[in-house]
Amino acid sequence: MTQTVPDNALDRIAAGDAPVLETLLAMNLDAAERSGLDAETYLLVRLAALVAMDAAPVSYLITLGAAADTGLTVEQMQGVLVAIAPVVGSARVTAAAGAIVRGILGAEALAEGVVPEQRRS
After folding, report:
1. Residue 3 forms beta bridges with which residues?
2. What does the alpha-carbon distance between residue 54 and residue 99 come to, in Å, rounded to a whole number?
3. Which tens digits make up the pLDDT trace of 101-112?
4. Distance between CA 70 and CA 115 in Å, rounded?
5. Strand 114-116 and strand 2-4: pairing?
6. Is the pLDDT of residue 82 over 90?
């Protein structure tokens, strides 16, 4: 059984009423500027940090969306995963790959207005 996202929630976000997202965006823009790194390097470092901290799928989605805007390639991002695997471990890199896929699938579900029901353990 699937649940649909309340129409009013999506409408509010589409209309720009998303204070949490706006705050997160402002924080990220400030950090990028303050880092002194070029956009591609900043996002590759950010990807490595997300893997190291076992980030949530939405965190990868935000970073990968920004990476697409800068022209980063899949090969560059895969290179980061290969480079950090000996430090963070293969399990962490594999978990990150799964989180990336879940983030992308979740974004697609939201775009379609359908949110899958949560599994219960």
Report:
1. 115
2. 9
3. 888 887 777 777
4. 29
5. antiparallel
6. yes
